[in-house]
Amino acid sequence: MALLNNYIDNLTQTTLMAALLTGILSILGYLSATFLLLKDLFKAKTRRPFLIIAWIAVSLHAINIALVTDKHQGFNFSFFSTASLISLSIAILLLIAVLDKPVEKLGIVIFPLASLMLGLEIAMPEASFTTVSYSWQMSTHILTSIMAFSLLNIAALQAALLAIQDQQLRSHHPRKLIRSLPPLQAMESLLFQMIGYGLLFLSASLLTGFIFIEDLFAQHLVHKTVLSILAWIIFSCLLIGRSRYGWRGNTAIQWTLIGFILLLLAYFGSKLVLELILKKH
């Protein structure tokens, strides 16, 4: 029995060391990919070197999460762990999008954010572990929620970049970063594509929530439900307005950012207050 306990302890320590190593290497990979994007920002082709390093970084990030989850026999749904998982999802979706869309410059924001979330998760291991085993129905709801937030996060970053691009072009003195972006019309098309995909997953998230969660308007869920529904209405109206009335420019940018802020508050508002301010888990 003593030998078995010894073996388990050694295995646990090895897993923790492997998780720490993959986490640190992933952070370095994210920062290296960001550096390459910044270095080659104004060149015609920047994809290949940064793509390889970025894919290595997200792979190591995924391995880190898998090791920690396996060690604790379940995923830790604390604030920083959830933020780390979502930032990983956003980075992966961006890398997939880069294969056929000119959105690689969003990595300048997304990769440092992913490294920050992973770093905070590693630096704060004392957070309590809410390791609950979910049914396939609940897992489907959680997965679609993460996909919706990740896609609409990319859309919000795209909207912010579009706002800067529009302002710079109106000033007739665009900086090199803005001149390196695709044309304004192409940027708007990309924005609405991201919103469309994100809305699809948000609809699935709300639908699975209404079907599989017993009381979606319970006290601890009511704000998430209401804010998510409001975000869904805003994004739906935006797509309808684009299709029927040709909404674009500042209208599209403003409503995209408002919708995402509502979704951000729905997903992270309560976790931020309860776990980091009130110290409740």
From TrEMBL:
Segment forming the signal sequence: none
Matches recorded under InterPro entries: Cyt_c_assembly, YpjD/HemX
Transmembrane segments: 16-38, 50-69, 75-99, 106-124, 144-165, 186-213, 225-241, 253-274
Alphabetical GO biological process terms: cytochrome complex assembly
Pfam families on file: Cytochrom_C_asm
GO terms for MF: heme binding
Alphabetical UniProt keywords: Membrane, Transmembrane, Transmembrane helix
Every Cytochrome c assembly protein domain range: 55-277
One cellular component term from this protein's GO annotations in UniProt: plasma membrane
Protein name: Cytochrome C assembly protein
Species the sequence originates in: sediment metagenome
